[in-house]
């Protein structure tokens, strides 16, 4: 277990872009336990406007496609295609309706405006946007391919899904007080969708995957804004999140003796953050320690579980679920507080 520095935080604009890995772990024969989804959203009591569509899209996509195929049908399965389109469209419209008529209902309407949040949370929020868009595009593409849609058309209609799902939320933000349309959010969404689509178009393979890891803050109990439960802290504490670009070592180097499943991963995290742009000196009249906000850069090994061959369908589903998450390995870390250090076990 890695040890992060002491921190507390009021992350009152946290965007729930990190819930998708949990959903994957609750797959049973390709179906999400809906009651668990409802429990998570109710229990967390967080600001979920930024990821409502992400959650719905990923959940329904997982229902349709519990594990990626290595081959796809040559003929179009119209019934499956219509089912796929119907579920995705219904979820999309339902999410937009929720945002419009419930979430933003009591928010004062303002003229369309922009919000520059590039420096917020040291770009950790942008990593979350890219991560969600990457998997939205991936799931949409594979669902279309499973229905017999050609690669070209699946890339055209499924590849941009990450951007398509996220854009209306930014528009809503731009029309409501307290938020704003963020071009940097849009850039992160575009990056995530393009990272998947470009690799699939050129190589028919994801040589570099986006992955996520989470390690709870040591001092979560010391400040309620980091969450009063472990579940709430999973969403509220940006300091506990790490995002990775995990590349297949054999594909990147051409070394044939390297195992197919072995990856090298470059990670990014941040620490010492309380509020979005700054750390307050006091909380309810009590002084807060002066934590230095800083970025963390990591180098580690990883595993691409999709490269592990198995004939068992349930095991392929488990591997697909776990492939969203960075497998724990030793890591080299560099940050401006400690300099270069070795982490025997980093997650």
Tell me what you see in this structure:
A hairpin with a 3-residue loop joins β9 (329-335) and β10 (339-346). The strands form three sheets. Strands 3-4-5-8-9-10 form a six-stranded antiparallel beta sheet. It has a two-stranded antiparallel sheet with strand order 1-2. Helices cover 41% and strands 17% of the residues. The model is unreliable at 1-67 (pLDDT under 50). The longest helix has 26 residues, at 78-103. The protein has 347 residues and is α+β, with helices and mostly antiparallel strands. It is globular and about 65 Å long. It has eleven helices and ten strands.
Highlighted features:
single chain; 347 residues; alpha+beta; six-stranded antiparallel sheet; 11 helices; 10 strands; globular; disordered N terminus
Topology diagram in text:
Elements (H helix, E strand, L loop, with lengths): L19 H6 L1 E2 L2 E2 L1 H11 L7 H13 L13 H26 L20 H23 L4 H8 L2 H14 L8 H21 L4 E7 L15 H7 L4 E8 H5 L8 E10 L10 E2 L2 E2 L6 E10 L9 H10 L6 E7 L3 E8 L1
Antiparallel strand pairs: 1-2, 3-4, 4-5, 5-8, 6-7, 8-9, 9-10
Helix pairs in contact: 3-4, 3-5, 4-7, 5-6, 5-7, 5-8, 7-8
Helix percentage: 40-55%
Number of helices: 11
- Report the principal-axis shape: globular
Bin the strand percentage. Answer: 15-25%
Unreliable runs: 1-67
Structural class by sheet pairing and helices: alpha+beta
Element-level helix/strand string: HEEHHHHHHHEHEHEEEEHEE
N→C terminal distance: 7 Å
Compute the number of strand runs.
10
What is the topology, as strand order, of the major beta sheet?
Answer: 3-4-5-8-9-10
The whole-number mean of residue pLDDT values reads 80
